[in-house]
Structures are given as C-alpha cells and as structure tokens.
Amino acid sequence: MKSRTRFTRRQVIGGTVASFVLPTLVPRTALGLGGRLPPSERIRLGFIGMGKQNLGLMGGFLGQKDTQVLAVCDVDTTRREHARNRVNERYGNQDCAGYNDYRDLVARDDIDAVVIATPDHWHTHPIVDAAKTRKHIYCEKPLTLTIAEAKVCIDAVNKYGVVFQTGSQQRSSQEFRIACEAVRNGRIGKVLRVYASVGGPSRWCDLPEEPMEPGLDWNLWLGQAPWRPYNSILSPRGVHDHFPAWRAYREYSGGGMTDWGAHHFDIAQWGLGMDDSGPVEVIPPEKPEAGIGVRWVYENGVELIHGGYEGRGGVNFVGTDGVVYVDRGRLQSWPEEIVKEPLGENEKVRLYRSPGHLRDWLDAIREGRQPICPVEVGARSVTVCHLGNLAYWTGQRLKWDPKNWRFIEPAEANNWLDGIRREPRRDPWQLPTV
Predict the structure, then answer these.
(1) How far is Cα 193 from Cα 303, in angstroms, rounded to an integer?
(2) How are beta strands 281-283 and 398-401 bridged, if at all?
(3) What is the pLDDT of residues 198-229, one digit of tens each?
(4) Is residue 6 exposed (0-12), middle (13-18) or buried (19+ Cβ within 10 Å)?
(5) β pairing state of 330-334 and 97-99
(6) 218 HSE (CA, 13 A, CB side)
(7) Which runs of E-coded beta strand occur in 233-379?
(8) What is the pLDDT of residue 34?
(9) 62 and 36 Cβ atoms separated by less than 8 Å
(10) Contact 161, 135 (CB under 8 A)
(11) How far apart, in whole angstroms, are the C-alpha atoms of residue 68 and residue 78?
(12) What percent of the chain clears pLDDT 70, i.e. is strictly above it?
C-alpha cells in the first residue's frame, strides 16, 4: 500500500492525473509562506554532496514555490550540518534530515527527486541507485568519471523512466541557443571546424598526507578511488567558498578537459546536431604532453579542436560563409548579421527554449518529459571529454564507434572504457549494473 501511494503521488507530480485529483482552487491558508504550494503539490527533494556547488543549487531550489527540501547528505559533518541549518532556517518549522551515506537518503520513500553535486568519481552510483528507486535526478556536470559510467547512466535512466537533467546550464542561456540555431540553420555555410577553449587533462594525485579532518568519513569520500592519506586540497576543511582542486587529479576527475569541456564541448555537440552521437576519430597533437591541440573528427568531416581561435576563448564555429563565437555573456559573428537577424520562416531549426535550468527540470517532472539536457546529452558530451583525455594520456590515434560505444582501433582501447587506472576499483564500488 505504501509504494502504491507514492506511485500515485508521483503520477500527480508528473501531470498524468493532475486534472482529476488536484483542486481547482487552492485556499490561501493552504499555500504556506510566500504563496508556496501546499505540501501535497510540492516536489520533495534530497541533496547529495553539500559543497559550494550544491549549496548554490539548493538556494535556487529553496526559492521555488513548488519544492520542499527534506534531506541533505555529505560525508563531512560540518558541511552536512551547515546545509541542514540553512534549510531549517528557511522553513522555520521543519527538521531537515542529514545523512552521511547517500544510500540512506535514496532509500526514503517520501523523496521524489535528488540533486547530486559530489566530486565526479561519485556521480554514477548515486545516479543508478536513485533511478532504481524511481527518483528524478539533477546531476552536475561533468556527468561521469569514465566512458563506461556514461553508458551505465543512460541505461539506468532509460530503464526506470525518471526525468534527468544534466547540470550543463549553458544550454539554458540565450546566447548559446542563438549561436547554435544560427549554425544549425546554415548561416555560416558548411561547418568546417569548431574550436573549444578549455583546460587540459588531469594528472595522477601526488598530494602529501595531512592530519585528518575531524568529522569526515574519508573512506567514503574516496569511494572507488585508491586508498590514500587525507589532504585538504581534495576535501577542504569545513564550509568553503571555492571549487576544490580534486578536479586536477585523475583518480577523481578529468581536469579542465572535463570540467569546462563538459560545458563547451557540449555546446559544440549541440551546434553540430550531435546530441545522440559523437566523433568517430580522435587525433592527439604531436606533443600530447602539451595538453592542447587534440582533434575530434566527425563522420561528416567536421573537426572539433581543443584550443582557442584568433585569440578568443569560448566556442568558435568556423564555416565557409562566416564565424560564430559564443561564450558566457558574449555572442558575436562575422559577418555580424549572422547572429543579429531573427530567424526567418524558412529557417526550420528551432532549438529548445529553457525557462531556466532548475525550473526546466521541475517543469519536466510535472509534465512527464525530459528537460533540455537529459542524460544522453550529458553522457555524450562528457564522452567527448574522456576521448580527448585518453588521446592525451596515451598519445594514440583512436577510432570510436559512437553508436555502439566501442573503440574500433586500437582494439585494446576498449580496456580503457572504465578509465586508465593505477589500481582497480575498491569494493564495494565496482561499476554498477542496471
């Protein structure tokens, strides 16, 4: 009976039976403070990983009238309690639950959706476990640590039918949509190359041991990664207002290649119409150790190049008839009318207009559809990043089959689908099954 009640309520949130069970008029006394919807109509959220990024996301969701934050999770006691207190201060009369282990949060029947903003090596297990309990998911980019994990995430979301938003928020920004619409409608002619300026690959961790941070479950923070002594660069002490540098190390992330690459390569994929595909060949530069210059080649011959163009960063689409440059808050083209003139009637490509990345996910949950950046988009974009890192790390030319998620040449590269590792995954955090 309990599971049936939850399923029915989620149908209501998804919009499938809302017209039959929701009242036409909601009394003002039932709305709560600030005109918020009554509890029966709110999307109940849990947050996993309470560092700087998720604190910011939580603030955004606390500002929505149709959400309720019920629980937070972090392996660091100080960050966990800080997040709990923030929720309790906002609501006044609610005791937000706090968990050390995400599995305890995901096991709750009264949570509809989770927001994940852990280090990259801790995305896939919470995604799969949340999907198995039919919870909708918002997960920060870069989506995964490895290519194999990216495919597992797609399979889990598709099998269990949950609504998934990748935190690649540039898709919800007007300048990126306008740029990609211009390219997709042929305004720069035939696309020849795309330049994306992001950081380089990560390196093996060599940090020295420091005294352990009190209240931190260091073993759980490491998860699948090899055991190593604590260092505050990986998990900063207490509440912090910066993005930790675990991103620089291969055990936990792919460096600037995945951090900013998950943003800018994602826009390249969008502009090329490759959301359900990807490159077929990856060519390292003559000096892979330089960490710049790798090239991805698509089946139609278009090249994506890791680097800037004519002194500009961001993303530059170069075609036979013009150039479109886009970055956060910046949009230019040569000739300038390419991005300044509105689309005409004969220009048929109209890309998704998001009302805002967080709002878009909540609306998609209520309407029973996928949002602007669903799981396959996030998985395909991060795979571009992983392919680039593999080319840098090995110096090898790689032929990739994006349809079947396999390497064609060299065949041994398929051993790298779950990353090039110094040590195997630690139990019990093996690659999850769907």
Answers:
(1) 5
(2) antiparallel
(3) 999 999 999 999 999 999 999 999 999 999 99
(4) middle
(5) unpaired
(6) 16
(7) 281-283, 295-297, 303-306, 315-319, 322-327, 330-334
(8) 52
(9) no
(10) no
(11) 22
(12) 92
pLDDT given for residue 11 in this prediction: 47
Give phi and psi for 332, each to the nearest 5.
Answer: -140, 160
Other CB atoms within 10 Å distance of the CB of residue 303:
17
Looking up tokens 């039976």 gives: 17
Asked whether the whole model's pTM tops 0.70, one would answer yes
Whole-number pLDDT of residue 308 = 98
Rounded distance, CA 346 to CA 334, Å?
A: 21
The 3-state DSSP class for residue 149 equals helix
> What would the pLDDT profile of 283-330 be if each residue is shown by its tens digit?
999 999 999 999 999 999 999 999 999 999 999 999 999 999 999 999
In contact, 264 and 314? CB cutoff 8 Å = yes
Q: What is the CA radius of gyration of the chain?
A: 22
Query: Tokens representing 3?
Result: 């599971």
* Strands laid side by side in the 113-116 sheet: 97-99, 67-73, 43-48, 113-116, 136-139, 164-166
Enumerate residues 6+ apart whose C-beta is below 8 A from 131.
Answer: 137, 156, 157, 159, 160, 162
The token pair that represents 343 in the structure block: 């689309």
Please identify which residue in the block is written with the tokens 């049936």.
Answer: 4
